């Protein structure tokens, strides 16, 4: 999936990395709660183990999933992989400020660039899948994660679903969310246009489940929802 990965990483340049922390919390109502619950779901799935190695795919930006997991489980360590250098650097800055950088192996690149003999106890894929164009590339990404997980290991997947134009009420509410946070009418219009053109989310929860099944994961449990956004926990079969 190198071509699609290159396409995705090019979207997250320095200017987007600089604004990501603020804008992601507007675009996703409940941003922090989703990441906190993701940590709770992984801890519950693993049985509160004192140590674990967790793969964090698309970790660039806020590194919020790592911060949440690290606060809950002081013995866990993390491998953070992201193809965007500005986004990974932004994550490193957040981790350094939180005193967590020593617990994280920062990897610039893609999942398929990681050593093939590594095996992880758990993984997260948050805010990534809807930026990967096409089901084939989405499936390839999920499979590349699956092969690096131990048998039965949990995976948290979170991101947008639905063809945006198919849900006009949700789309309008998403625009109202931006207006609620002080965006002008022109800015709301621009952001609505950008979301319609800039991503390729799975078209339903059933489509998410199918992608996971085809990649070697079991049934997924939804634990968070916010307009277009959903978050699920599944496990490697």
From TrEMBL:
- The Methyltransferase type domain is annotated at 60-154
GO MF, one annotated term: methyltransferase activity
InterPro entries found in the cross-reference section? Methyltransf_12, SAM-dependent_MTases_sf
Q: What keywords tag this UniProt record? A: Methyltransferase, Transferase
The record's Pfam families line, in alphabetical order, gives:
Methyltransf_12
Q: Which GO terms describe its biological process?
A: methylation
The name this protein goes by in its record: SAM-dependent methyltransferase
Q: What is the lineage of its organism?
A: Bacteria, Pseudomonadati, Pseudomonadota, Gammaproteobacteria, Pseudomonadales
